Amino acid sequence: MANNISWQDALNRLKTGNANFVADSLDGKLQNSSRRSELTSGQAPFAIILSCADSRVVPELSFDTGLGELFVIRVAGNVANTSTIASIEYAVAHLGVNLIVVMGHESCGAITAALAGGDNGYNLNHLLGHVTPAMSASEDKDVNTVVKVNAHLTCKQLVSRSSIIEDAAKNKGLKIVPAFYNLGSGQVDFIEE
Fold this sequence. Notes:
Shape: globular
Distance between the termini: 31 Å
């Protein structure tokens, strides 16, 4: 199973779904036993979402999607590490997905921890090291500003650290878009490059 939807159509579906979420009018489709049965033979998501692991940010709900529609990778700080990149490569190369959204969010705890500095233990320090370039590139050290810079830089890292993603972006119609999720309203702002 592969999805051949253009990145433009995929982005429009996300925007429409987010408008439904913000308006409290989720359609709740594709979330039943019939849909689960359909998906036993494979998946064909129309978009990849690299999002933070924060429990307040749920891409499937934020974009009013059902089972099998999004390929979601969640990690604190929505960072491009080896595992997240490999997961995205799989969805691009094997599932034919043409849109990647890197979605940071308001008041991100990982970015807040990185800005605070200090020793957070080996594993968390390693993860927060992926956020350091965004902190350095941001003149304003406000957490939400750094979150947006981090989303931009992560988009660029996906291309620079993966020949599969780079080739798909150059030759196969793949688009990578940074985004920012507002906790209070649920609105996702797609950040223009």
